[in-house]
Amino acid sequence: MTYRLPPLSSLRAFEAAARHLSFKDAAAELSVTPTAISHQIRGLEEYLDFPLFKRLTRALELTHEGRAMLPKVREGLECFAAAIESTRQVVFGGRLVVTSPPAFAARWLIRHLPEFNAAHPEIRLRMATSLDTIDTADAAHVSGLSRVDVRDDKTETFIRYGNGHYDGCRVDRLFAPAYTAVCSPLLLKGMRPLNVPSDLRRHNLLHHEVDSELDQPALATWDQWLQVAGVTGITADGGTQISDPGLLLSAAIDGVGVALASKQLIEAEVLAGRLVMPFDIVIRPAQAYYLVVPEAVAERTVVTAFRRWLLKEAAKVREG
Amino acid sequence: MTYRLPPLSSLRAFEAAARHLSFKDAAAELSVTPTAISHQIRGLEEYLDFPLFKRLTRALELTHEGRAMLPKVREGLECFAAAIESTRQVVFGGRLVVTSPPAFAARWLIRHLPEFNAAHPEIRLRMATSLDTIDTADAAHVSGLSRVDVRDDKTETFIRYGNGHYDGCRVDRLFAPAYTAVCSPLLLKGMRPLNVPSDLRRHNLLHHEVDSELDQPALATWDQWLQVAGVTGITADGGTQISDPGLLLSAAIDGVGVALASKQLIEAEVLAGRLVMPFDIVIRPAQAYYLVVPEAVAERTVVTAFRRWLLKEAAKVREG
DNA sequence: CCGACGCGTGAAAAAATCTCACTTATATGA
DNA sequence: TCATATAAGTGAGATTTTTTCACGCGTCGG
């Protein structure tokens, strides 16, 4: 069985044009210019040796022939889509749970997930957050990772903030947060200048309030940043203490003061103009974000697909 | 409904490769090199993010995934083929009868028809021959052309040899035969030389015997050719008289003598080395072959498709 | 052990596809 | 009515995709 067919891309153009009854709209759908569609259709008509559209002013109409051809062409495209979709379902299909630190989930993962969903619509992904994914100060102890039910359809993976040593797991370093000072752009236009780090003297510093009882991780502190910036004489215990990191960032956005935040996690706010980074001084804690996958599920295709995608995304962040 | 699909050509390559279980054979089917298939498949696998084939030494095997994907891909291609075929059936479908002079049918049309069939498999074409398609010497009288039943599914067209004036018909000139001397290549290697036209003295001339009762058309004669060639003193009434033109050519092929034949109609014999044209001297009668279509059917798509194709083929002959 | 065979690779060539700048035709509305 | 905007068409040139070429690898069969 050998198929005698025109360039298949022209059939795709035909289907889109016939559906929209507009070269312009079809072009938009296929992300090309209307001219491209025009050429494709013309080529197809030439190949077939009969016209598919009646070109009226400002409107297209299918010819008798075009109308006759459309359903089967559409069916063909649907077959292709179905072939791929169902096979992806076979290969990758299933559920995947990603548990990560709340800030990472809220400020980074959730913004990038739509892309993953587009690339892998057949993977039903559930995001979960847990403070347990943040290594405690004395580190190395990892709980819960080994208790994965291997038969479970819901494969679970973790993104952890910590030192990268997790027994019985495949570990990939994503990136280390780069903490820098951030504030509302309005603050820069205010009366008090903020040109050099020492100007911070006259500003309200927003601190992450560490609950000592929780044995909190080694978060970046203003003390550390000010030291790197070479600023002395600022009492780090001044300013506002806020326990919730999300609330802290909101405060910075609202112009309440200057916060320390990870460059990578506030990308969206900076792009949107809600936050600015007045100084190019960053501190990097020894800890980083890691993708941690229990060995038992590491070979599952859902996991490898997610891992491959996540590492690619993380690489962009590292470079950018 | 917007389809998210890989380059469709790669699906075609996949189907062919999967069917043959060989890149090489698939390449042959699609008239490309095996490398091209290799690249296409690789690209598709990259797009899909899973392998379609297991590459063994000297043999391919479909992966689980490839096997899962194949049926729907095939179905898609079949849909496309069906879409086009059925629409062509709607547009062009039907029967077409082409009546032409016997020699034209046997020596030219029949060799070119397979191409038309390939281009228009939906048109069932019947070849007919009739001496009536050759204008009689007193010309202008055309019989039978007007008596076409317009409702008839069997649309009839004619190829006529004559002067080109046919009332009530669309007429296109195809080409005028160019008569030249032809003989078997063996004759040239024989003892009697055939380097210049006057050498024909020593050869047997094969004549088309004209049946005077039939009011035969103005065929080219040796008298005319010898005059153009500037040869005198050959008695044209010598040589062998043969009444059937096919038989006459057979005789030439068998080395019986030298015949006068139309360059265009003996192309195949020359290419096959059964005949040679020792001299580049041709005579062109005033008559030519014409495509003659009764007005009543001239607008039918079967006719326009045939006409377009035939004129293109005839143009090649005129140039070549 | 050698040569033929089938597939793979990367760079270069060829072909297709797309875009750009400009045109046409006509409907809209000031 | 006439300028304006819209959708499509054209042909040349740019771009991207596809194909080829030259060569490499592993192995099967004599």
TrEMBL record, chains A, B:
Keywords (A to Z) from UniProt: DNA-binding, Transcription, Transcription regulation
DNA-binding listed as a keyword: yes
Highest taxon of source: Bacteria
Lipid metabolism keyword on record: no
Residues of the HTH lysR-type domain: 6-63
Pfam families xrefs: HTH_1, LysR_substrate
GO biological process per UniProt: DNA-templated transcription
Gene Ontology terms, MF aspect: DNA-binding transcription factor activity; sequence-specific DNA binding
Family the entry assigns: Belongs to the LysR transcriptional regulatory family.
UniProt-recorded name of the protein: Gcv operon activator
Organism the protein comes from: Candidatus Accumulibacter appositus
Gene: gcvA
